[in-house]
């Protein structure tokens, strides 16, 4: 994969481009939308050269398997996009069971890890309105052929969208409030400081509808900077995530690690004045700031395991970020990877994301397992591991998981809330409903 080719193409919408290959096994997309900083590049890939799927019974060490799949690190093209081909995939939440002895049950047929090496990629530069067809190979001719394959995807027919008509049914709200109350009790007894407890919604798509139609609807109505898509034969993950998990980028000497945890949520207001008031109240909320700070401290600890001593910092705290249906508090933690440490070391040190587990992380995960069904892809991560050794990844929130059964596509979605000592169960339930609202509306309503 040392040879690299790059061909400039006229602008094309990345969502439409993904729709042309979305039904192929191992089709994958990372879509950056909205007005948040960093929402510049989107990527579409298909036709991988090699795939990796680790089931719970497989004994392979996942991060060693990822490193083998990726192959030797190569120098990036200085004129190329941040991701120039390489490995991309899905780390399900229960991958954590391979990092800590938690004995977590699994969700259906979902693997712990699913990844592939993609020599052909389309990169979409939203800032400059250009498309780049990228190719990698052992020789220049092989790289050029891969770039040509990527460019050809833009000429494939685009299936017409269908109505989804999947009205989601939520699990018992009273059971969720009881779970929140139990977590508050455990916090009061000193067992944990915080845990993220999620609710579940389920439904079924209308006949002939396809999961990709949900992603298209979300991209049109509530674009997010870390949206993602993956097709695994009879399973699909679609995420409209606003949250970056971990990034390892080439900034200065070595790799700079970054994480941007979200904690603290307020619904959008009905008019500009009410909306501004909601944002201001969130920024001033002691509860939400404390909730956010706990996860910042947790992520600082995680980064310190693989970063240079004394260099981990939080340059931005409690920034209000606004999305289609909610405001969030976002903080940033950075550090420079220590000598001999790689982006995969960073991913392993931080997985699963602190913002959807709690503090202390391991004990919070044990508490979560007592209240939730296995999470599978929910609250895991989708990631891009570049051929040059860089990494970017999201937190799989605002996510729907699809499974193909005899009667069609079944869909499940989840939304959680960070529970702290002064959490009020009914308000936490309402927070989950605000978070799920855009996804539920795109699917066709919720009850």
UniProtKB/TrEMBL annotation:
Pfam families cross-referenced by the UniProt entry: Anth_synt_I_N (PF04715), Chorismate_bind (PF00425)
Residue ranges occupied by any Chorismate-utilising enzyme C-terminal domain in the UniProt entry: 174-435
UniProt xrefs under InterPro entries: ADC_synthase (IPR005801), Anth_synth_I-like (IPR019999), Anth_synth_I_N (IPR006805), Chorismate_C (IPR015890)
Domain (Anthranilate synthase component I N-terminal): residue spans on this chain: 11-131
GO annotation (BP), single: L-tryptophan biosynthetic process
Lineage: superkingdom: Bacteria
Coiled coil: none
TM ranges: none
Official protein name in the record: Aminodeoxychorismate synthase component I
């Amino acid at each position: 994969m040392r040879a690299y080719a790059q061909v400039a193409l006229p602008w094309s919408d990345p969502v439409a481009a993904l729709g042309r290959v979305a039904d192929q096994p191992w089709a994958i997309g990372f879509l950056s939308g909205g007005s948040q900083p960093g929402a510049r590049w989107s990527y579409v890939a298909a036709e991988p050269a090699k795939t990796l799927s680790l089931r719970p019974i497989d004994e392979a060490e996942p991060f060693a398997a990822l490193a083998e799949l990726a192959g030797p690190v190569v120098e990036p093209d200085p004129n190329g996009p941040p991701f120039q081909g390489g490995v991309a995939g899905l780390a399900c939440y229960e991958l954590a069971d391979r990092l800590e002895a938690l004995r977590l049950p699994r969700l259906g047929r979902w693997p712990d890890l699913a990844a592939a090496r993609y020599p052909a990629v389309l990169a979409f530069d939203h800032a400059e309105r250009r498309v780049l067809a990228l190719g990698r190979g052992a020789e220049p001719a092989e790289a050029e052929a891969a770039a040509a394959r990527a460019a050809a995807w833009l000429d494939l027919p685009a299936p017409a969208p269908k109505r989804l008509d999947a009205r989601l049914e939520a699990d018992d709200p009273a059971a969720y409030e009881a779970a929140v109350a139990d977590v508050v009790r455990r916090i009061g007894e000193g067992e944990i400081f915080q845990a993220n407890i999620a609710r579940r919604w389920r439904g079924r798509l209308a006949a002939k509808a396809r999961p990709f139609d949900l992603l298209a609807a979300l991209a049109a109505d509530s674009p997010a900077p870390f949206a993602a898509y993956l097709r695994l034969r009879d399973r699909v993950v679609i995420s409209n995530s606003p949250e970056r998990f971990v990034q390892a980028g080439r900034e200065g000497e070595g790799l700079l690690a970054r994480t941007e945890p979200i904690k603290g949520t307020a619904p959008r207001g009905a008019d500009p004045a009410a909306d501004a008031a909601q944002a201001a109240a969130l920024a001033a909320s002691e509860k939400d700031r404390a909730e956010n700070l706990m996860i910042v401290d947790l992520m600082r600890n995680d980064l310190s395991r693989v970063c240079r001593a004394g260099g981990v910092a939080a340059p931005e705290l409690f920034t209000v970020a606004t999305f289609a249906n909610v405001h969030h508090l976002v903080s940033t933690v950075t550090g420079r990877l220590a000598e001999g440490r790689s982006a995969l070391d960073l991913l392993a040190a931080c997985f699963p994301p602190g913002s959807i587990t709690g503090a202390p992380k391991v004990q919070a995960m044990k508490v979560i397992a007592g209240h939730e069904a296995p999470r599978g892809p929910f609250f895991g991560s989708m990631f891009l591991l570049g051929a040059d050794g860089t990494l970017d990844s999201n937190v799989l929130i605002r996510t729907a998981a699809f499974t193909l059964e005899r009667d069609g596509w079944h869909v499940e979605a989840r939304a959680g809330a960070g529970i702290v000592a002064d959490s009020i169960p009914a308000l936490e339930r309402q927070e989950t409903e605000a978070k799920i609202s855009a996804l539920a509306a795109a699917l066709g309503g919720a009850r």
